[in-house]
Amino acid sequence: MRILLVEDEPAIARDIHHALAETGYVVDIARDGEEGWFRASTEEYDALILDLGLPKLDGLSVVRRLRDESSTVPILVLTARGSWLQRVEGIDAGADDYLTKPFEMEELLARLAALLRRVGRHVTPLIEVGALHIDTRRLRVLLHGRAIELSPLEFRLLRYLAHNRDRVVTQGELVEHVYGSDEPESNAVEALVARLRRKIGAKAIGTRRGHGYIMETPAS
Ligand code: CA
Hints:
Elements: E1 2-6, H1 10-23, E2 26-30, H2 33-42, E3 47-51, H3 59-68, E4 75-79, H4 84-93, E5 97-100, H5 105-118, E6 126-129, E7 132-135, E8 140-143, E9 146-148, H6 152-163, H7 171-179, H8 188-200, E10 206-208, E11 212-214
Parallel strand pairs: 1-2, 1-3, 3-4, 4-5
Antiparallel strand pairs: 6-7, 7-8, 8-9, 10-11
Helix pairs in contact: 2-3, 3-4, 6-7, 6-8
Bound molecules: calcium ion.
């Protein structure tokens, strides 16, 4: 799940980024309203977390521009404490939910998950493919009931393939969803797939030459 965070305060951006990444989201950060609007209208995100007080272009204008462009991306706005007017204006402009600063990170995560659920993008905590059990909340993977250790990148790759099981996913998709805004070196995806195969079994991930990779549900 790919999230765009638009927040100009570095400490808050870092904390939110950290919490989201730990939960398994891929996060891009924009530091001002112009950049946030530009990225949200040119790239694909599952949701936006948008501060309203932003340099260059304020958050409300970002929401209005996106809705004027018929963007349906779910938007959670962060508002200043005590500013009920900001909240009303945010919702009026087309935001889906709001959270008042300061907030607990757990609440942000819960609101975001609820927002994604409402628009039908389920944050499924448990995914099973054959003998693999992937707990996306605890970031744990069991193979035949035994825990296996995965690096964060290996985990993200496995989760993405498992979410999209029985469908070929392209290299480009994997780069986008596994690496986020960190551009990986060429062949990084192949190397990562090879490492993951060594841990979960070579047959768990199929290659479709020239197309991409697929994780298939084993016939039972
Ligand atoms: Ca701000």
